[in-house]
């Protein structure tokens, strides 16, 4: 140990034990100060101290006195003139004869010394005081010349090699056990220094007491440390830390010099402006002094004097030794009553601990075996400075704990204290002080205490206050990893205090200090139990925890095997450029949702934890590092005003097409993930809890969600338990799904192969649905032998189509086309339940052309497939179950129409069926059954109407009216005739089902038939009213429609419901054998009317006479337009036989007259013919 960086002989005023030979007074020679008499008496200590020549001391202050001349062994400090006045004033008289007692008294009048008594023959009283510590007194209490004398006295004692003999005897066993100390050459003053270095390994009680307690003298003045002055002389001068020459400064206040050097060392570490670079040798000496003073706070002279009053105030009952007083003062550092000077001294010491953990006696002692066990200081290639840093120790041991290794409870307790210390005071981390200086000055000044500055920096790091320097961000991330508050929330004092009330109420079922407390707090984020301050502190911390998966201890514990297997991770405190900490979680969640076929899946426990983290991250976009990093620009561009919880992600999803490529990819991946497990959306799940509990609890309890929960929520979106927030959230997710078919997990899974085969290069879900639906429809219409779309896909396709029909916003093209009309005509109608679409249908005549075309196409699809008519399926849900359980989906509307007039029919459903009938009768294309049945008849009889119509315009019932007339003429094909007959029967009961009649006769109906309209009986009374008042109708178009109606009624009595009702009994009696249709039953009744032998019911007779008059008037008002029309009228007339008989008789008579009378013209001569 030739370099002598340790404390040399620390023997001070050693009482020679009974088994050590006494040291005679003449064994130590001294130089007496000038004017000192030679009369000397034996010192009670058996020692003859030396008075040193001041001049010699000044020239060589570290060497002690030169070879003094011999003096008698009875020399006493009390007899020295320079100290007599102070001695008389400060020390009791009974202590004057004992040099040790005098030295103790003069060194620190204020501090009572501890004593260690050993019986020896040399001590007159049987005991001898061993001074355990020397504390400097106030500078003004002792004269400078007396201080000189005392300092040289101590210097001579500590540099006398003969005192090694005491160490050799007291520590004989220990020296043999410590090889380094056994190898020291005696007489050089290094033995005791070696023992001090290894005092942590000394088990012998007396030796430990001897070495530990006798070190105190060295800390009363830096010049008593071997080599310290030589190594730090230049730095002391450069930093102006004090004198290095005896007499220039109070020697007993030299602790301030050490403190000055320590502060200089801290400033250099923090790279403060103008910081002096301390030489490496001096740095080591400073840290060594701090280490040696780590067990007893008295040994840190500056801190001791700064904190004497605070020690009495806060730590009165704390015993000195083993760093206990330090820890007590650290715990009270931010108390209001703590003096600023003491707080400053404590902070300096904590900063030294941060640079070298050995400066903390308790930490070094408690964790010594664990450090050795887990090789935390075995890397020979690592710089010693880094190896000794507190951060390295914490990271190494935390890594062991997270890997499931056993670290002693005592060591973990010490680690906990220092992790909390790092979180409380940002200034203990040089990197933060260096790199976050501008952020602290600009945003966080005045918040130094209790971790508030650190949380303020976290807030800045989140982007809540301003932009943060990347170096500062990295420093904060490193500090969070070192302190590891995720393992125990109590480490973060600011969080602990802010969330105490929430923990006591919402998380009281979790053990105090359990890592799951943070998860519990996150689960209650944005709930009634959460308080604002806790919310802020929690998000600030979680922001940094989210950026390193290892900082969530539960996640790391459950997933470290999977991460190593799938993501090629390293140790807890090791990083890789190929797989940075932030990328590990992304890797894990990509594997979390793999199918069995895809392989390489996560373990069940790890997947549960990954889902937990995803649920938490969904609460705040800033908790997803990848999302925030890639979408920073887009968040500012599109979502700057979205400040509520969850709004930022929704905003990004809304603007998906507008995002930059990187942001669009990450938002798309996250949305795709949500489609499989919507429970990731924690806020949505909270809002939907009532409907989940009542309608979807079985699905929600399923650990493996494959989109079932969202399907359930969509299906129950209009239940009474559905809250507004839940409905909005579910609809928003539906709106997002239409942007990409991958966002619908079930649809993607069922139809992925079909999409790739049939709809390549199509991405939007709505376009994919249209593409696949068109394929299915074409295959069906063409009676293809094999459907191109798989059965599984067709089934899911139907679900998607029905869901899209519920809200017009789910069909973007339709919504965009009709947005203007919605604002104009349906502004008070809420979206959902297909209400807006229904509103547009009811106002179809007032729509813009573009919207009208879209609505018509929508209706065309719905009529072909009524299951896509959301409003019909919703309103008539129970009626469908009652009447149409055996009907196919495409025949549901037909079934409902057939049962419309049943007494069991729900009125609302009946009303909606009528609306659909009205819609169908406006255009044959909206009635697929009629269209198919009359496929040949329409172009044959109604081509002029088709030629006049534009492709996108509605025909307003013109084609159906054309077919009705042809039905009256009995010219339709059987299938078409059957369908027209149904339409005629339906419209005869309800005039609204005849669009032409309603269009042309609205005013006449209001004028002539108000009572019938008000009755709303739908029994044909309005039509009867128009027939009766035919002569009063003023509008020609309306009159024509009524005449057509009369003409149609002649074809079949079923078309005339009033007449049919009046004559029902007569038909049964007189015409039962005659089949209906083609006017047969009507002819039967007419013949019965003319037959005087037949007696008809009075009502029937009256109605028949009325009909004859109407038909007669119709014939006059609307004569035949041509021979064919005349022939048709005759053939369709109930008096057809009579008319034909008359016509036949006339033709026969004309023939007979011709035969009998010859020619009436003049005969022509033969000559004229031959010309």
Automatic annotation (TrEMBL):
Region of interest (Disordered), ranges: 31-68
Annotated signal sequence range: 1-25
Stretches forming Cys-rich GLG repeats: 277-337, 406-465, 467-529, 601-660, 721-780, 788-845, 846-904, 971-1034
Name of this chain's protein: Golgi apparatus protein 1
GO annotation, cellular component aspect: Golgi membrane
Location within or outside the cell: Golgi outpost; Membrane
Membrane topology: Single-pass type I membrane protein
InterPro entries linked: Cys-rich_GLG1_repeat, Cys-rich_GLG1_repeat_euk, GLG1
Source organism (scientific name): Collichthys lucidus
Residues annotated as transmembrane: 1138-1161
Gene Ontology MF term list: fibroblast growth factor binding
Pfam families to which the protein is assigned, alphabetical: Cys_rich_FGFR
UniProt keyword annotations, A-Z: Glycoprotein, Membrane, Repeat, Sialic acid, Signal, Transmembrane, Transmembrane helix
Superkingdom of the organism of origin: Eukaryota
